[in-house]
# Entry
Amino acid sequence: MADDREEGTNGIVIPGPLRNSVTRRSLLGGAAVVLGGAALAACSTSSSGNDQTGSAAAAGTTSLLKKIQDRGQLNVTTSLLYKPEFYKDASGQPAGYDIDVLNMVAKDLNVKLNIIDVPDNAANIANVQSGKADMVSAGLVNTPKRALVMNFTKGYVPYTQILMVTVNGGINSVADLNKAGKKITALQASTAFFRAQLLFPKATVTPLAQDEALLSVATGKADACLVEDYLAKPFIAQHSNVKLMNNGEGIATEFGCWGVLAGDYLWWRWLDNWISYNIDNAQLPGMYTNTFGLNWVHPS
# Structure
């Protein structure tokens, strides 16, 4: 997502029935809270013996996990711009893969989901750091630079990146593009942009808004665009002069992660455990395939 615009303030509460029945997921989550709190409290230097809020408590604060449950609402920041992952439907409501997944998270926490829609990742990260949001769900990749200011979960969504090239440009490999004078576009501040810089050190890599990055190839201003396949295919269907290089063979795979405030171990580990559980029980892989029409790639 773009990182050069100002922060938005649009919050959308997605109501849903609070669940009373005990499921395997809620039981697992509850056990994680109890065991995690007890284990961390046992390692605490507190003399009261009653401190069960994990590492956050050691710093004099309460974990967001407890705060979210107490307030009855999960605040998530994202950018509703990229269908089918996260976007606004015809009625203006949040929709897409991430929203479906987040509704499951809220259900397991027995709270409502509140979506905070902002235009870019700079605003998403700022919302988490300021406390406006409990987490960011915008397909962030856990780059070392970002990990200096946030904790990241394991991947909840795989991104297969492909190259979109012109039909008659004679581009058939990465080597054909990694040359002086070649121009590559990618979505600014995205996983594709960071990967393009690694793949094409000899070429010129230009970060642009998504539509502009794709149009630059179609209009002959660039030789190729490194992009997620689900974003390229609808564009190619409307522009006959561009195609997927080598029939859409993947160039690289990155994984979008959830980002939370650095240092809140209990909340971070609960989310990490949630992702692991729902990958292992095939929930996330099935939802991913149904939404994107692509095969799931298991994160490392």
In short: The chain is about 35% helix and 25% strand. Confidence is low (pLDDT under 50) at residues 1-9, 16-55.
